[in-house]
Write a structure and sequence with these properties.
Elements lengths: L2 H15 L2 E2 H8 L3 H13 L3 E4 L2 E4 L9 H4 L4 H12 L7 E4 L3 H14 L4 E5 L2 H7 L5 E5 L3 E3 L4 E3 L1 H8 L3 E6 L3 E3 L3 E4 L2 H13 E7 L11 E4 L6 E4 L5 H8 L4 E4 L1
Parallel strand pairs: 4-5, 4-9, 5-6, 9-12, 12-14, 14-15
Antiparallel strand pairs: 1-3, 2-3, 7-8, 10-11, 11-13
Helix pairs in contact: 1-3, 2-3, 5-6, 6-7, 8-9
Length: 256
Amino acid sequence: MTAEERQRKIVRAARNSGSVDVTALAAELGVAKETVRRDLRALEDHGLVRRTHGGAYPVESAGFETTLAFRTTMHVPEKRRIATAAADLLGDAETVFVDEGFTPQLIAEALPEAAKGRPLTVVTASLATAGALAEAENMTVLLLGGRVRPGTLATVDHWTTRMLAGFVIDLAYIGANGISREHGLTTPDPAVSEVKAQAIRASRRTVFAGVYTKFGAASFCRFAHIGDLEAIVTSTQLPASEAHRYSLQGPQVIRV
């Protein structure tokens, strides 16, 4: 097996399972651990994976994006902590945009408690989020129209952005497939990127919430810079030193 064939297998395994382990890959491929580590370094250089201690996870790109169903199985306790902390940043906001994705959906589910019974209007492109909040007390849900993407169950295209352009929103909770100090917030699909960018333009405040694996990764389409954010909410698995580097570009960084 050539190095190229081996690396293709590694990428496929990472995308299928969400992560790969050096020891397991070495045994499966019949090569030394150091060979796998070299392969992972090469794949990271090409932006296909991000290495971790003892393994790697796939980077989402123009050619690869996880589904909403898959995201509900990964890092769930971490995402719930992040979502609760993000919802606590609601402040006196009366109108909120909630992005597509599982972590934003968890934020939406935490909003009724964060609002402490006062009325709140939630704007979203996510069918899952709209469904989760549809019957919540004191919640008005506005679902943005458009083409529904099957993998994420969220609307996109000009219908969605045009509707967003007519709003002035107090607070936007935004997700991303990658966030880096060099490239800002990125996502694989240009149509999704446009919705996120328009939501940020329409909002007075923007909060990014995401797990530590998002950091340092860059996808195809940039829709925001780090300085556009009021706050970043993530877990303590993002090192404090790295969190400080992000904070130097403007946002408060909260690790939970």
